[in-house]
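Sample log: Protein-glutamate methylesterase/protein-glutamine glutaminase.
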Amino acid sequence: MEKFGVLVVDDSSFMRKCITKIIEKNPKLSVVGIARDGYEAIEKVQNLNPDIITMDIEMPNMDGIMALKKIKELYNIPIVMLSNYTEEGAEPTIEALEAGAEDFFLKSELINQDVDDKIIDNFINKLINVIESKKIQKQCSEINKDEMVNKRELSNDKPKAKVNIIIIGTSTGGPVALQSILPNFPPDLPVPVLVLQHMPPGFTKSLAERFDTFCQLHVKEAEEGEILQAGNIYIAPSGFQTTLHIKNDNEVVFKIIESSDDNILYKPSVDVTLNSAAPIYKEHLLAVILTGMGNDGLVGCKSVKKYGGHVIIESEETCVVYGMPKAVFEAKLYDVQVPLQDVLKEILAYV
């Protein structure tokens, strides 16, 4: 069995041992080296050529964000950041994702004595999925780069109907993917945009504030009872489910709820939101499924299509992880599948 090499970067010897122990338990992964700061990480990358890097954000000498930027300039190696679960830790984590980190994971979840096996499995699966997707991307580009980039797959050739809302769902790799879309929406966009990004509680507020600084539309975290208005991009708050409800005066409002359903893995869940939106907007709903692990969005897209709505999905060659779009693709619930650089153009064709 092929083993993927992991470089563990952290200034804490305790954390290095914890992460190494977790990684080494999986037969697909092997820790090929450790580094104590950003300078050592860059040196180890040159010598060890790992398949993936776990990178602490806060380190002496050279922190994780600076090391991330320098490594990304030189190498096409995926990096998963390890973040502190604090409000202060959210902002640098978002900065790291914007700088090209594929994803992040909370340190507190990995070192918790009562850590759930599902959390460990999620961490390991995240590493493996990112590695395997990166290798597939490389193979695709080597086979025929021009053909792959220009590929556009249609599930039907129906004329595009004008929509009244855009709902975007994404997970691993989402913050970077969103950077190519949200800032490029025109300032006169006539519909609201709702983004569901899988993140731990407390991080979506920083994500919204960050995007608000460089988007042409106002970006904010969605709030309970708030009326959806054109010209706004709403980020669904993490740790809750965001649903849409129509009032007697036909205004649509957010209902932010706590879900106790153990069958729903993600908070926010793309499925939950789309299921609530589809019967309200019907053929005037556009769902966009971008890069991400798992199949969140599959059930929701079934509802979207049932009510006559429309679905755009990101194609494999540009996904950090081709999980969420793949599930929708295989179920034939999409209208068009395109590379990330073409997603905005496809969206705007509906508005």
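Observation: The chain has two domains: 4-137, 153-348.
Observation: The two ends are 49 Å apart (CA to CA).
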